[in-house]
C-alpha cells in the first residue's frame, strides 16, 4: 500500500506511533505537538524535545542557496518548535549524512550556518553522528525547557478565543515560487525563504497570555487545522485580515496567482500562531509586540471556515503534505 | 577538499564541532563520548543524549534482512551507547525519511522492530519527524539518565587497569562477510548481524566497578583506541585472549581470513568494553557476569599493541572509517 493511499504523512505518523511504546509516567505531551513535553527537568520546568529531518533536494537545494543558509534554517526551524511551546532551547544534537564526494568546505559551511543560528538562539551542540549517505541529510534534535505555567499546547484553544499571528505570512513561499519559475525574487522574499528567523523573541511575551500556540511551518491553514483538531474546536479566518507583505502581493501578481495561497499553504514562515481569550487582547497589545488578529475559534460543529473579501465563507484549504 | 583527504570521519567531526557553540554551564561531557552528559536531570542523576543516523544501503539493506530487523537494530545501537555510559535509556525521538514509493508495510515493519527493542529496553517514543527522501533514513535520538556516581566515560582508564569485554566478538561481521560472498551464514552469526542485542543488562553490574567504558560498535581495535586517546594512555591487547565464538572461527576458515579481523575491525557486536582496576577483578567475578580480560592499560608512550600468539607485539590495527 502506498503512503498517499492512506492519506499521507499524518495518517502514516498515526499508524506508526501505535507500533511503539508511546506512554510513560514522565510524559506530559507526546507525538502530535511541536515538541514532546517531559516531567524530567527540575526547578518547576518541563523538558521539551523536538526533531527535524532535512534531505537535500527535498527540503533544501544548494542550486538556490548555499550550505550555510541551509544549516541556519535547519536550526531556526527547530528553535521555532520550542518557541511555539512557550519554551527556551538548550542543547542540540546534529546527525549528518554526507555523500562520499561532499567537499569538506560544504560540511563546514553547513555547520557555520548552524553555529550562527545556535548563537542567536542560545543553543549548544552537544553531540551527534556523522556518516555517509547518498544525499546530504541533516537530522536535528533540539532540547529545551519551559516553565510549568508557561507551557503552550496546540490543544488549549477555547471557543471564543481570537486567533493571532506574529507577522506577515507567505514571503518564504512567494520567494521560492518566483525562483522556481526563473523570475527574480526581491531580497526580502529571498531572505525570508533562505534564512528565515524564528520568533523565539516573541515566545516569552506570548506564553503568559495566550491559550494555544503553534509555529507556522506548513502554512496558516494546516496550522489552524492542527490547533482545531487537537482542541476539538472549529475556526473562522478572515482573508482580509491575514497580514501580507506588499512584495508577496507583487509576487502573486507576477505569477498570476492569489497571494493568499502563499500565506495559507506556503509554509516556512516560522511566525507564531496563537489563540487568545478576548479579555487578554488589551494586555497583549500593551506589551508592544506586533501581531495581527486573523480570526476566531468556533464550536467544532462550525468547521474550519475562510471568509473571503466578499463576506462569503468557504472551507479553509491549503497546506503541504509530504507524501501527496 | 575531500573528506578522506583530511583523515575521514573523526577529523571531520573535530573540524565541524569547532564551528558551533559546544560548551555551556550544564554540559559535563560533550562531543566525543558515547553520549553527551548534562547536568539537567534531578535526583542526583545526569541526563544522557545520544544519536545515530542510519541510511539504507549504507548501514542496512533490505536485500539481506527485513525492515523489522533494521528497526530493532537501530534502537539497540542507541541503547548500547547509553549502556556504555552506565546509564538507563528513557525516551526517544525518531525521524524517518522515506522514498515516496515506500510501501506503508515497510514503514510499519520498521516501527514494529523499533517497538520490540523499545519494550525490551524500557524506552518510550515521544516524537519525531516523518518526511520524504531518496533513501530510507532512520535518525534516532535517545535520552537517558545515569546516577552521578555511576557515570562511565571513555576518558577514565588508568595505567595498570585490566581491559575486559562482556562477550565474544566478530560474529556480526563474520555473518555479514559470509552473506556478502554468497556463502551460507549460520543462524547464530546471522542473528548477531541482523538483530544484535545490546548489553543494557550488564551496564548496572559494570558501572559501580569499572573505570572507562565504551560499547563495541566499530570493532575492538578502534574502541580501545578511543579509550586510549581520551584517557591519554596506551594499551596492550593479547590476541589469544579475545573471545571468539567457534562459528566465527569456522567462518574465517571458509573465507580464508584471520578470525581476529572480525573481532578487531568488524564492529556491530554491541558488547561492552571496559577498563578495571586489578583490585576490582574479584569483585566483578563475584557478580556472576560473564566477561573476558583481553589486555591491560599501559602508559601512553607504549602506544597501542597487539600481542600475537607467538608472543610478538605489533601495532593494534583495524576498524571502520565511514569516509575511507
Note down, in words, how this protein is organized.
The structure is a homodimer of 324-residue chains. Chain A has 324 residues and is α+β, with helices and mostly antiparallel strands. Chain A folds into two domains: 3-149, 60s Ribosomal Protein L30, Chain: A, CATH 3.30.1330.10; 152-315, PurM-like C-terminal domain (Phosphoribosyl-aminoimidazole Synthetase, Chain A, domain 2). Chain A contains ten helices and 13 strands. Chain A has a seven-stranded mixed sheet. Chain A has a six-stranded mixed sheet with strand order 1-2-3-6-4-5, with helices on one face. In chain A, helix 4 packs parallel to helix 8.
Write the layout of secondary structure elements.
The structure is a homodimer of 324-residue chains.
Chain A: H1 9-17, E1 27-29, E2 36-38, E3 45-55, H2 67-84, E4 88-98, H3 104-121, E5 124-132, E6 137-147, E7 162-165, H4 171-180, H5 187-194, H6 203-206, E8 213-215, H7 220-231, E9 233-238, H8 246-255, H9 259-265, E10 272-276, H10 281-286, E11 292-299, E12 304-307, E13 313-315
Parallel strand pairs in A: 4-5, 9-12
Antiparallel strand pairs in A: 1-2, 2-3, 3-6, 4-6, 7-10, 7-11, 8-10, 9-11, 12-13
Helix pairs in contact in A: 2-3, 4-5, 4-8, 4-9
